[in-house]
Design brief:
The chain is an alpha/beta fold. The protein is built from four helices and ten strands. The site of NADP nicotinamide-adenine-dinucleotide phosphate has 27 residues, from strand 1, strand 2, strand 3, helix 2 and strand 6.
Protein backbone atom coordinates (compact mmCIF):
# COMPACT_ATOMS: atom_id res chain seq x y z
CA UNK A 1 0.00 0.00 0.00
CA UNK A 2 1.20 3.50 -0.63
CA UNK A 3 0.27 6.57 1.38
CA UNK A 4 -0.46 9.76 -0.54
CA UNK A 5 -1.55 13.27 0.32
CA UNK A 6 -3.69 15.58 -1.70
CA UNK A 7 -3.63 19.27 -0.84
CA UNK A 8 -4.23 22.73 -2.28
CA UNK A 9 -2.01 25.36 -0.72
CA UNK A 10 -1.18 29.05 -1.12
CA UNK A 11 2.30 30.56 -1.51
CA UNK A 12 2.86 30.55 2.26
CA UNK A 13 1.55 26.97 2.53
CA UNK A 14 -1.90 28.28 3.58
CA UNK A 15 -4.69 25.67 3.43
CA UNK A 16 -7.56 26.99 5.54
CA UNK A 17 -9.08 29.64 7.77
CA UNK A 18 -11.82 29.31 10.42
CA UNK A 19 -12.20 25.65 9.46
CA UNK A 20 -12.98 26.51 5.85
CA UNK A 21 -11.10 26.28 2.58
CA UNK A 22 -9.61 29.53 1.28
CA UNK A 23 -10.94 29.36 -2.29
CA UNK A 24 -13.41 27.59 -4.52
CA UNK A 25 -11.75 26.37 -7.71
CA UNK A 26 -14.00 24.00 -9.60
CA UNK A 27 -11.15 22.60 -11.74
CA UNK A 28 -9.24 21.71 -8.57
CA UNK A 29 -12.32 20.11 -6.99
CA UNK A 30 -12.83 18.02 -10.16
CA UNK A 31 -9.21 16.96 -10.01
CA UNK A 32 -9.61 16.06 -6.31
CA UNK A 33 -12.66 13.94 -7.13
CA UNK A 34 -10.91 12.15 -9.99
CA UNK A 35 -7.82 11.32 -7.92
CA UNK A 36 -9.62 10.24 -4.74
CA UNK A 37 -12.63 8.36 -6.18
CA UNK A 38 -12.65 4.67 -5.31
CA UNK A 39 -9.95 5.22 -2.68
CA UNK A 40 -9.86 5.26 1.09
CA UNK A 41 -9.49 8.84 2.34
CA UNK A 42 -8.45 9.79 5.85
CA UNK A 43 -9.19 13.19 7.37
CA UNK A 44 -9.24 14.93 10.72
CA UNK A 45 -12.52 15.44 12.53
CA UNK A 46 -12.34 19.21 11.86
CA UNK A 47 -11.94 18.72 8.11
CA UNK A 48 -14.82 16.25 8.16
CA UNK A 49 -17.03 18.81 9.93
CA UNK A 50 -15.98 21.43 7.42
CA UNK A 51 -17.01 19.17 4.51
CA UNK A 52 -20.17 18.26 6.42
CA UNK A 53 -20.85 14.80 4.95
CA UNK A 54 -19.06 11.68 3.76
CA UNK A 55 -17.71 12.05 0.21
CA UNK A 56 -19.40 9.64 -2.21
CA UNK A 57 -17.55 6.74 -3.89
CA UNK A 58 -14.80 6.84 -1.29
CA UNK A 59 -14.11 5.01 1.99
CA UNK A 60 -14.34 7.90 4.44
CA UNK A 61 -12.09 7.54 7.51
CA UNK A 62 -12.30 10.21 10.21
CA UNK A 63 -9.64 10.55 12.91
CA UNK A 64 -10.80 11.83 16.30
CA UNK A 65 -9.99 11.31 19.97
CA UNK A 66 -13.72 11.21 20.67
CA UNK A 67 -14.57 7.54 21.18
CA UNK A 68 -18.28 8.21 20.84
CA UNK A 69 -18.01 9.87 17.42
CA UNK A 70 -20.14 7.81 15.05
CA UNK A 71 -21.89 8.72 11.81
CA UNK A 72 -23.37 6.68 8.97
CA UNK A 73 -21.00 6.29 6.03
CA UNK A 74 -17.92 7.06 8.11
CA UNK A 75 -15.23 4.85 9.66
CA UNK A 76 -14.16 6.49 12.87
CA UNK A 77 -10.63 5.82 14.09
CA UNK A 78 -8.96 6.98 17.31
CA UNK A 79 -5.47 5.87 16.35
CA UNK A 80 -3.85 7.21 13.15
CA UNK A 81 -2.34 3.76 12.35
CA UNK A 82 -5.82 2.23 12.10
CA UNK A 83 -6.31 4.03 8.77
CA UNK A 84 -3.95 1.56 7.09
CA UNK A 85 -6.02 -1.41 8.28
CA UNK A 86 -9.32 0.12 7.21
CA UNK A 87 -7.92 1.01 3.78
CA UNK A 88 -6.54 -2.52 3.27
CA UNK A 89 -9.92 -4.02 4.11
CA UNK A 90 -11.43 -2.12 1.18
CA UNK A 91 -8.71 -2.04 -1.40
CA UNK A 92 -6.67 -4.56 -3.26
CA UNK A 93 -3.29 -4.77 -1.48
CA UNK A 94 -1.29 -4.50 -4.74
CA UNK A 95 -3.02 -1.36 -5.92
CA UNK A 96 -4.02 0.30 -2.67
CA UNK A 97 -3.38 3.96 -2.02
CA UNK A 98 -4.47 5.56 1.25
CA UNK A 99 -5.20 9.21 0.52
CA UNK A 100 -4.59 11.66 3.37
CA UNK A 101 -6.81 14.68 2.68
CA UNK A 102 -6.06 16.96 5.68
CA UNK A 103 -6.16 19.20 7.53
CA UNK A 104 -2.98 20.56 9.06
CA UNK A 105 -2.85 18.28 12.12
CA UNK A 106 -3.53 15.18 10.05
CA UNK A 107 -1.02 16.12 7.34
CA UNK A 108 1.62 16.48 10.09
CA UNK A 109 0.75 13.10 11.59
CA UNK A 110 1.06 11.16 8.33
CA UNK A 111 3.98 13.10 6.82
CA UNK A 112 6.58 10.46 7.84
CA UNK A 113 4.64 7.76 5.92
CA UNK A 114 3.78 9.62 2.73
CA UNK A 115 5.32 8.62 -0.59
CA UNK A 116 3.32 10.69 -3.05
CA UNK A 117 1.78 14.18 -2.92
CA UNK A 118 -0.83 15.60 -5.29
CA UNK A 119 -0.16 19.29 -4.84
CA UNK A 120 -2.15 22.25 -6.14
CA UNK A 121 -0.39 25.56 -5.74
CA UNK A 122 -2.85 28.45 -5.68
CA UNK A 123 -2.30 32.23 -5.82
CA UNK A 124 -3.60 33.62 -2.53
CA UNK A 125 -2.96 36.56 -0.24
CA UNK A 126 -5.37 36.63 2.66
CA UNK A 127 -5.85 35.34 6.18
CA UNK A 128 -5.11 31.73 7.10
CA UNK A 129 -4.86 29.72 10.31
CA UNK A 130 -4.06 26.29 8.88
CA UNK A 131 -0.94 25.45 6.88
CA UNK A 132 0.53 22.50 4.98
CA UNK A 133 3.65 21.28 6.83
CA UNK A 134 7.11 21.41 5.29
CA UNK A 135 8.00 18.20 3.44
CA UNK A 136 10.36 15.76 5.09
CA UNK A 137 13.12 14.24 2.96
CA UNK A 138 13.80 14.60 -0.77
CA UNK A 139 11.11 14.76 -3.44
CA UNK A 140 11.01 14.78 -7.23
CA UNK A 141 8.29 16.11 -9.53
CA UNK A 142 6.65 13.35 -11.59
CA UNK A 143 4.14 15.51 -13.37
CA UNK A 144 3.35 19.22 -13.64
CA UNK A 145 0.31 20.92 -15.22
CA UNK A 146 -0.49 24.62 -15.31
CA UNK A 147 -4.23 25.25 -14.96
CA UNK A 148 -5.79 28.69 -15.30
CA UNK A 149 -5.76 29.52 -11.61
CA UNK A 150 -3.39 26.98 -10.06
CA UNK A 151 -0.42 24.80 -10.79
CA UNK A 152 -0.81 21.08 -10.20
CA UNK A 153 2.15 18.81 -9.47
CA UNK A 154 2.57 15.18 -8.48
CA UNK A 155 5.57 14.69 -6.18
CA UNK A 156 7.20 11.41 -5.26
CA UNK A 157 9.58 10.76 -2.40
CA UNK A 158 13.07 9.96 -3.72
N1 LIG B 1 -6.51 23.22 1.26
C1 LIG B 1 -6.61 21.92 1.51
O1 LIG B 1 -6.18 21.09 0.69
C2 LIG B 1 -7.25 21.46 2.78
C3 LIG B 1 -7.53 20.10 2.97
C4 LIG B 1 -8.13 19.70 4.17
C5 LIG B 1 -8.42 20.63 5.15
N2 LIG B 1 -8.12 21.94 4.93
C6 LIG B 1 -8.38 22.95 5.98
O2 LIG B 1 -7.61 22.60 7.13
C7 LIG B 1 -8.28 23.14 8.28
C8 LIG B 1 -8.46 22.04 9.33
O3 LIG B 1 -7.19 21.57 9.77
P1 LIG B 1 -6.91 21.33 11.34
O4 LIG B 1 -5.46 21.03 11.51
O5 LIG B 1 -7.51 22.46 12.11
O6 LIG B 1 -7.82 20.06 11.69
P2 LIG B 1 -7.85 18.53 11.13
O7 LIG B 1 -6.46 18.04 10.92
O8 LIG B 1 -8.83 18.43 10.02
O9 LIG B 1 -8.54 17.78 12.38
C9 LIG B 1 -7.94 17.86 13.64
C10 LIG B 1 -8.61 16.84 14.54
O10 LIG B 1 -8.15 15.52 14.22
C11 LIG B 1 -8.17 14.73 15.39
N3 LIG B 1 -6.82 14.27 15.69
C12 LIG B 1 -5.63 14.89 15.43
N4 LIG B 1 -4.59 14.13 15.86
C13 LIG B 1 -5.13 13.01 16.40
C14 LIG B 1 -4.56 11.83 17.00
N5 LIG B 1 -3.24 11.66 17.13
N6 LIG B 1 -5.41 10.87 17.44
C15 LIG B 1 -6.75 11.01 17.29
N7 LIG B 1 -7.34 12.11 16.73
C16 LIG B 1 -6.54 13.09 16.29
C17 LIG B 1 -8.70 15.62 16.53
O11 LIG B 1 -10.11 15.47 16.52
P3 LIG B 1 -10.99 15.65 17.88
O12 LIG B 1 -10.83 17.09 18.26
O13 LIG B 1 -12.37 15.28 17.45
O14 LIG B 1 -10.42 14.69 18.88
C18 LIG B 1 -8.31 17.00 16.02
O15 LIG B 1 -9.07 18.05 16.60
C19 LIG B 1 -9.60 23.69 7.79
O16 LIG B 1 -9.48 25.10 7.57
C20 LIG B 1 -9.81 22.99 6.45
O17 LIG B 1 -10.64 23.72 5.57
C21 LIG B 1 -7.56 22.37 3.77
Amino acid sequence: MIVSMIVAMGPKREIGNNNKLLWHISEDLKNFKKITSGRAIVMGRKTFESIGKPLPDRVNIVLTRDESFSLPGVFTINDPMMAFEVALDYEDEEDSELMVIGGEEVFKLYMPFVQKIYLSEVEYSGPADAFFPELLGEWKTLESTQFESFKFRVLERV
